[in-house]
Design a protein that fits this description.
two-stranded antiparallel sheet, mainly alpha, 2 strands, 4% strand, globular, 5 helices
Length: 111
């Protein structure tokens, strides 16, 4: 029984270590942000699904905020069908890269 607990403890430590190794690479993001630009890259854009709302400009947001938001959509903690559909398709590395990219942008423009 002690071996099982030891294996589980080591697996938990390995997961934490693996998560800590993920570093966002803004240069890797351009191929990953195409689905973001259609809404978040248009100043003043309003979406109509599931209701009419102002789409936030995410350029200039902190990387941690963007990571937390995307993970919240993945887990269902944040409610928006389109964002959930996008977020569940992203790996942890994708999320880190996208967050790094948008955190380096200005609030009003994307490169």
């Amino acid at each position: 029984m002690k071996k099982i607990y030891a294996v589980l403890a080591l697996a938990g430590i390995a997961n934490v270590a693996a998560a800590a190794d993920i570093v966002g690479d803004a240069k890797a993001a351009p191929a990953k942000i195409e689905m973001c630009i259609g809404c978040h890259g248009i100043p003043g854009y309003k979406a109509t699904f599931p209701e009419v709302f102002q789409v936030p400009m995410i350029g200039g947001q902190s990387a941690k905020y963007i990571e937390n938001a995307l993970k919240g959509y993945q887990k269902g903690e944040r409610k928006h069908p389109s964002m959930k559909g996008i977020a569940v398709s992203l790996s942890d590395q994708d999320i880190a890269d996208i967050a790094a990219y948008y955190s380096q942008q200005t609030k009003t423009a994307q490169k």
